[in-house]
Design a protein that fits this description.
elongated, two-stranded antiparallel ribbon, 5-stranded antiparallel beta sheet, alpha+beta
């Protein structure tokens, strides 16, 4: 009832959870609500939340999943969940992924501040040019094109690039400040793993990453 709602609002106003506009008499969130929200966000652990959701995502996708965060040497694998469709991938917890030849690296390169990834990109560009890799960008302009593609599709993809016969996607997860906090990667054999953008593997991965971002407060500003 209106009377009960008013009593609640008066109590919330005393606590600073709501404020009333003296001109319109409308209510809005108050300073205490902001502090409460920020405190809640600060307690959220992105990796913990992602790990809790991996079993359900694995059931949907049916392929190996991994979580990566930005470490002092680049994108670093911090969790690995292998599916029944095991793949031959010599990856371990703590491995740092290359920026240009891995889906995880491309995801971070596309969404991290440019100054954070620039030194690694320069080293990898020089290495790719030295080896005359035709499957990797060898110029700054080609890198920009690649990273624009990642941002456009909402996920990064590699096909038979880092590991022979392996396809991988990586989707970004953002926090309340819009910063990239982790990447969710799935990979599998090219024989059983759909490599298409917007396909049966790419889509649920991006949906899961977007939901986690939303739960971490992304897009709420």
């Amino acid at each position: 009832s209106a009377a009960k709602a008013h009593r609640y609002l008066v109590s919330f106003q005393r606590l600073g959870l709501v404020v009333q506009d003296s001109r319109t008499a409308h209510y809005d969130l108050g300073p205490a609500a902001l502090k409460l929200g920020l405190a809640s966000l600060s307690r959220l652990d992105a990796v913990r939340l992602a790990r809790e959701r991996m079993p359900a995502l694995m059931q949907t996708i049916g392929h190996t999943l991994a979580l990566a965060v930005w470490g002092n040497r680049g994108p670093t694998i911090v969790h690995w969940a292998e599916s029944s469709q095991a793949v031959t991938a010599n990856l371990r917890l703590g491995d740092v992924m290359p920026l240009l030849s891995s889906a995880t690296g491309r995801c971070f390169a596309a969404h991290m501040p440019r100054e954070a990834v620039a030194p690694m990109l320069q080293d990898e560009l020089a290495h790719a040019a030295k080896l005359r890799r035709t499957d990797l960008p060898t110029t700054a302009a080609a890198v920009d094109t690649l990273l624009t593609e990642v941002r456009t599709h909402g996920s990064a993809r590699v096909v038979d690039t880092l590991l022979p016969g392996i396809v991988a996607f990586c989707a970004p997860v953002f926090d309340a400040d819009g910063h990239l906090v982790l990447g969710i990667t799935t990979l599998g054999s090219v024989a059983t793993f759909g490599p298409n953008w917007g396909g049966a593997l790419d889509t649920p991965l991006r949906v899961a990453a977007a939901q986690l971002s939303q739960d971490l407060g992304a897009g709420c500003a």
